[in-house]
Write a structure and sequence with these properties.
297 residues, alpha/beta, 3-stranded antiparallel sheet, 26% strand, disordered N terminus
Length: 297
């Protein structure tokens, strides 16, 4: 619904508040302080933050995701190198995934710069699969947005999702450029400011909505491997959105399917998709080393 702001109580854009004292006072009660005006996210906190890595290889009634263990190990090492406290979860059930997210949202993130969640699993449009069942994609962040997790208000909440999002194939479009670096075989995977609740959230999907993705059973997935390479090479020198543009570029230009015996599957490509509600620039500024934690209760 479109809201008409051309009323007798029209917003004063310069002062960002209603011309009526009553509305102005109400805004102050749910406001975030003036530092929100800064161009850069604060990275002077004591800790980088928590990185949750959900890796799903084995399922109750779906095919095994061979190669995801390499993705898991590689992304954990990269995140550890960027000073995160990495927590790894293998083959959790739907209830365990949701309870883990809820539990972490109740922690105090005051001294953290940000939050990262990485999920590698089977999926379809709007859904992700745990070991035993599926759940909605937005379940990943619903416990961390707005007042659901007050200690992360105004801080980046970053979600990276490696899963199918449909049944479409992303075919190649020929252009005059160098060929892919890696030709891989693939296997299909079945003042005073108040801010919106969804502010400071970023979701990067491994592929465009409606498409399914590619993963090499031995070398890992195109998206996660591209993410690892880009963060390793440029994680300390480029801002986040520039880094993720590099991830997209690597995925698009360095990978292509090579399945000559199947014309439908041959020469297929993949492009990640970024949905960003970030309000500032974010860098992974250097901190002291953190740790990798496994087998969390």
């Amino acid at each position: 619904m479109e809201i008409d702001t051309n009323t007798s109580d029209e917003l004063d854009v310069v002062k960002f508040g209603s011309k009526s004292n009553e509305s102005s006072n109400a805004a102050k009660k749910s406001a975030v302080s003036r530092p929100t005006l800064d161009e850069y996210y604060d990275t002077t906190n004591n800790r980088r933050g928590v990185a949750l890595v959900f890796c799903h290889m084995n399922f109750s009634s779906m095919v095994k995701r061979n190669g995801t263990d390499k993705d898991r190990d590689d992304i954990c090492n990269v995140l550890y190198g960027l000073d995160f406290e990495v927590r790894v979860f293998d083959d959790l059930s739907e209830n365990e995934v949701l309870e883990t997210l809820k539990k972490v949202s109740r922690e105090d993130h005051t001294d953290n710069d940000c939050l990262v969640v990485v999920v590698m699993s089977h999926g379809e449009q709007g859904m992700l699969y745990a070991r035993d069942n599926k759940y909605t994609v937005d379940s990943l962040w619903k416990n961390f947005i707005g007042k659901s997790c007050e200690s992360l208000i105004g801080k980046p909440k970053l979600f990276f999702i490696q899963s199918c999002r449909g049944e479409q194939l992303d075919e190649e479009v020929t252009m005059a450029a160098r060929g892919p670096k890696d030709m891989v075989d693939s296997r299909r995977e079945p003042i005073v400011y108040s801010i919106p609740a969804m502010a400071d959230l970023l979701v990067m999907y491994s592929n465009y909505d409606g498409d399914y993705l590619w993963r090499n059973p031995k070398q890992g997935s195109w998206f996660i491997q591209s993410l690892c390479k880009e963060l390793t090479d440029n994680g300390r020198t480029k801002d986040l959105l520039l880094l993720l543009t590099g991830v997209t570029r690597r995925t698009v230009f360095e990978y292509q399917t090579f399945v000559p015996h199947d014309e439908r599957m041959d020469a297929m490509n993949q492009i990640p998709c970024i949905v960003s509600m970030l309000t500032k620039v974010f860098y992974f500024a250097k901190k002291t080393k953190s740790k990798v934690v496994t087998d969390i209760d």
